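Forgive a beginner's question, but would it be possible to get a protein, spelled out as residues, together with the matching C-alpha cells, please?
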Amino acid sequence: MNNKALSTLEYNKIIVSLVTYADFSASADLARKLKPTPDIEKAHKRQAATREAKYLLSLDTDFSFQNASDIRPQLGLARREGVLEPEDLLAIKHTLIVSRRVRRVLENMAEEVPNLSSLADALPVGLGLVDRISKTLSDRGDVLDSASQKLSEIRNEMKITYERMMSRMQRFISDQSTARMLQEPIITQRNGRNVIPLRAEFKGRIKAVIHDQSASGATLFIEPLAVVEWNNRYKELELAERDEVRRILAELSSAVVLHADALIVMVEVMAELDVALMCARYAEDLDASEPELVPFAERHGKHPGSTIRLYKARHPLLDPESVVPIDVDLDPETYALVITGPNTGGKTVTLKTVGLLILMAQSGLQIPAGYGSKLSVFKDVFADIGDEQSIEQSLSTFSGHVTNIVEILKKADAHSLVLLDELGAGTDPQEGSALARAVMTHLLDRSITSMIATHYPELKAYAHTTDGVLNASVEFDLKTLKPAYHLTIGLPGRSNALAIADRLGLPESIINAARAEINPADLRAEDLLDEIHHQRDLARRAREEADNEHQVAESIRNELAERLDMIEDERFELMEKTRQEAEAELGGLREEMETLRRLLAKARQPLEVVDEVEEVVEILEEKVSEPVLRKEPEKPIRKPKGPLRLGEKVHLRSIDQDGVVTSIGEEEVEVQIGMLRIRARISDVMRKGEPEEQTEKGPPKVRKGRITLPQVHESPGLELDIRGHRVDEGLDLLDRYLEKAYLASLPYVRIIHGKGTGRLRESVREALSSNPHVARYESGSQAEGGDGVTIGHLKGN
C-alpha cells in the first residue's frame, strides 16, 4: 500500500489506538506493523479472525494474554550461551502457562473458531519447562534449596555456620565484662563481615580485627578473633552458593535453548492471536461491524468492477456523539464520484472516511458502518488531500498538488482507488477547471475508481453528462450559516455565496449587481438545483414523518395486541372454569345414574330410559372433555435488516433474551445464550439496538425458538489422583478433569497430589484459585489424607 496515502488518511492513528488494546509487547509490535493487504484471501482470513475473537469475547471465555511476555530477547541471550536471570526464567514460565491456557480454550471451541484454533495448533505442548522452572525457582525468583543436592548441603552448612558465629558474637554482647565496652549491644556488618561496635577508649581490650570506625571516631567496628574463622567460612560458603546458583541457572538456560525454536514460534503465534483479540476489542468500542469484502466484478465498458457500499459510515477518529453518519453507495454503473459543497462542509471528511474504512477493512479491522456494507479489495489506495491552510504562494501549493497527482497517475491502475481533494485548486480557475476535467477523463479512460472533491461548477456539468460519474454534495444550512455534513449522492452542490452574503447583511444593491453579472442560464440552473434540493428535503421530511407515524401506529398495534391477549386470557380462563364445572356436574350425574341402574336392576325394572340418558351424558362428556384452545392473535413477522453474521449480538423476542449468533441457516439461526444454544426462526431475531419494524404479515401462530438443553455429561468421578506426574502434566489433567466435573454438576472434587516437597500441592491450589469453575478449596481432613489431598468446591453446584 502507498505509504503517503496511509499517512494522509491517518491510518497510523488507527494503529496507535489499536496498540492500546495489546496484552503484551510482542502483539503491540506486530500491530504496529499491520498494513492493509491487497490479497482478498488474506483480507477474508483477517476478518474471520477478528469475527471469531469478537465471538469469544461475547462468551466471556478465558481468552487473553495477560502475564505473557515477549521472551525472544531472553532466548537470544540464552542462545549466545548467556545465563538467564531468575526473572527471565519466570517470564518464560508464565508465558508458557498463558500459551497452554489459550490453546486449551481454542481446542475446546475448534468448531466455532476454526481460524484461531488452527493458529493455536502451533503452540507447543509438553516441553517440561514449566515443571522444571517451578522446581528450581520460587514465585519471587529465589533459587530453591531443592534445586540441587549440593545447593541444599551448602545452605544447610551456611545455616549452621551462621548460627554458631552469631552465638559466639552474642557472647561478647551478653558477657558483662565485654558488654560495658560496647557502644551498643548489637551485631552489625561492615565490608561484608559481622562486627560489633566497640567504644574507642577500649581499643585493644578485645583481640579483634578493626574494619571501620564512626565519623566521630568514638566507635570502632571490630570482628573478634574468636569468630574470624567462622566469618571466613561463612564467606566461603556464600561464594560456593553463588557459584552453584550460577551453575543451576546456566543449566536451566541450556534447557531453554533446546526449545528456543518452539518458544519463538509460540510468541509469534500468541502475538498473532492477540492482534485478532485487539481488533475485536477495538471493534466493540467503535461499535463497528464486519464489511463484506468482494472481488472486482465483471462489468461492461470501462467500469473496473469495483464496489463501494457504505451505510451509516462514521469516521473512526471523530467523536461518535457528534459525527454525522454518511451513506456512500455507488451503483453498478458508477465508478467515479464528484463531491461539491461549501468549505468545511464535510467533503474532505467524506474522502478520508471512505479511504480509511477501506484500509481498515483490508487490515482485518471491522469498520464503524452499518450492516450490509460491501467493499472491493483494492490493490492500492492513493490520496492527495490537502486540508491544511497554506501561507505559501499559490504556485507552490498548486505545484505540490500536481506533483502528487503525477506520482499517483504513474502508479494507479484499474484495481486502485484514487481520492483527490480540491483537484485543480491553487491556480487560475479557468485553467484549474480544465485541468481537473482532463485528469478526471484520464482516470475514467484508465478505469480507475476515483472520488474527487472540488469547488469548480464545470465539474458538476461534467459529472452529469459523463458515463460512470455521479454528482454528490454536502449540504449547507442557510438559516444557521453552518454546514450540515450530510452527503447527498445524485445531486451536485449549490452555490451559496450570494445567499450567504445576503444573510450576513451585504447591501441588496450589491447582491443584485452581482447577480446581473452571472450568466442567466447559470442562474436558472442554480434555481432549478435549489428547487430539486428543496423538494428532496420535503420528501425526506415527509419520509421521517411517515416513519414516525408508522412507529406510532406500530405502538398502537402492539398495545391493542396486548389488550387482545389479555381478553383472550380472560376468555380462556372463563371457558376452562366452565368446562371443569361441567365435568364435575356430569361426574355427579353419572354416579346418580349408576345408583339408579342398581336400584332398577334390583327391582327388576326396565333400564331403557337409563340407557337413553346415559347416551346423552356420553355425548356431553365428549364435548366437555375437549380442551379449551387459546386463540393466538395475529402477530407480524419481523426480520432483521441486512444479513446476520456469526458472532453478532442479537435479541430473541420469543424469550426476551440477548445472545450471540453461532450458526446461520436459510430460515433459522442458532443463538448462544449463556450455556444454552437455541435454534430460532430468523423472524424471531433482531439485532441489538435495532428498532422493531413490521415487514410482512405472517400466519396466526409464530413458532417460537426451540431450546436445545445442555447435554447431560458423564461424571468423571469425585477423585483425581495425579501423584507421580510432573507439575505441568498434572495441571493439564486437572484442567480437563475440572471442566468435566463442572459440566457433570459435581458439588466438589477431591484432588490427590501427595505431600512430597509440596510443589505439586502449591501448583494445584494455585490452579484451583484461578479456575473459573472453582468457588473455593481446602485441605482434606486427616481421614481423607490431610495435606496430601485438596478439596475443591465447584461454583453453582
Observations:
- The first strand starts at residue 188 and ends at 190.
- Residues 367 and 451 are 19 Å apart (CA to CA).
- Confidence is low (pLDDT under 50) at residues 387-395, 693-712.
